[in-house]
Amino acid sequence: MIERVKPWQGVMVATALPLHDDLSVDLEGYAGHCRWLVDNGCDGVVPNGSLGEYQTLTGEERAAVVRTAVEAVGGRNVMAGVGAYGAAESRRWAEQAREAGCGSVLLLPPNAYRADERAVVEHYREVARAGIPVVAYNNPYDTKVDLTPALLARLFDEGLIVAVKEFTGDPRRAYEIAELAPQLDLLIGSDDVLLELALAGAVGWIAGYPNALPASSVELYRAAVAGDLATALPLYRTLHPLLRWDSRTEFVQAIKLSMDLAGRRGGPCRPPRGPLTDEHAAAVRAVTEKALAEGLR
Fold first, then answer.
1. Is the confidence at residue 168, as pLDDT, over 60?
2. Which helix (DSSP H) or strand (DSSP E) does residue 229 occupy?
3. By percentage, how much of the chain surpasses pLDDT 90?
4. Among 15, 104, 164, 196, which is disulfide-ready with 133 (CB 3.0 to 4.6 Å)?
């Protein structure tokens, strides 16, 4: 088993953000959720990612979410999302995370337009000046910017990033990244390729579905990185119908519904995210209830 020796390694949960019925942020509930995740074996939390609906938060809310996470589980165990349209704003959020005591930050490339390599490098240079370890987030589906293995190697060689959350869903990327930047930490970004990337050398998982089923998710991750397929494969097969939702447009609503069914507060989302369709809700409900009936937690 790979031990977690750096703040960004291990199972870092991209936390869903509980909202009150009036859609105001439930900071007390969020603090309790962060503590519950760590108590169930997760290594830390990632506030203000897409799953945390950061795009809909005010600046005051976003800062409060980071401070709440740090107070709940300790700063080393918090990787704050610092995505923003401009590099200067991302740097300010990285500085806020550093001042709050976070162990690392998660940074998307420029996403207001399809940035070229020069713009991407300058973006990461600017945020690196905040003086906190930066984990790159490669999500070309949403950003339209692909952090290719060669570009990641360039960013790493310049000392701008320490790891990458790889969300392409292509396990082949892992091997090319290892060839071009062997010291760059690979973190699983898509829940539904967890086993494939763990076997390819990932040392962490920025995870969605542990919000609902943390203990079983951690068991799966630990077995996968240890190469214990006898333990990992049955768990993976059971969880995979849920893990696939992490890569779908409705992933926030799906994970929050699974949380509700597991006895946690998932609740509503802020617009423009609306409720799941009846068809999608029924599908999520069926696979969640099946997992719970089989004893997954």
1. yes
2. helix 229-243
3. 95
4. 104
CA–CA gap between residue 35 and residue 30 (Å, rounded): 9
> What is the C-alpha to C-alpha distance for residues 256 and 77, in angstroms, rounded to an integer?
22
Q: What token pair was written down for 213?
A: 């089923």
Torsion of CA 177, 105, 88, 145, to 10 degrees: 30
pLDDT for 20 equals: 96
Percentage, residues of the chain above pLDDT 70: 99
- The answer to whether residues 111 and 83 touch, using CB atoms and an 8 Å cutoff, is yes
Q: Return the residue matching tokens 């940035």.
A: 115
Contacts 24+ apart (CB under 8 A), 260-264: 261/212, 261/285, 261/288, 261/289, 261/292, 262/212, 262/213, 262/288, 262/292, 262/297, 264/33, 264/36, 264/211, 264/212
Dihedral over Cα of 17, 22, 28, 32: its sign = negative
6 a catalytic residue:
no
Q: Is 165 a catalytic residue?
A: yes
Query: How far is the C-alpha of 263 from the C-alpha of 265, rounded, in Å?
Result: 7
Half-sphere exposure of residue 32: CA atoms within 13 angstroms, side-chain side: 8
Report how far apart the first and last C-alpha atoms of the chain are (Å, whole number).
Answer: 21
Structure tokens at 118: 């020069």
Of 30, 165, 209, 256, which residue is the catalytic one? 165
Residue 141 is which amino acid?
Y
Which residue from 99, 90, 109, 5 is spatially nearest to 48, judged by alpha carbons? Answer: 90
Other beta carbons less than 10 A from residue 77's beta carbon: 23
Among residues 30, 137, 221, 236, the one annotated as catalytic is: 137
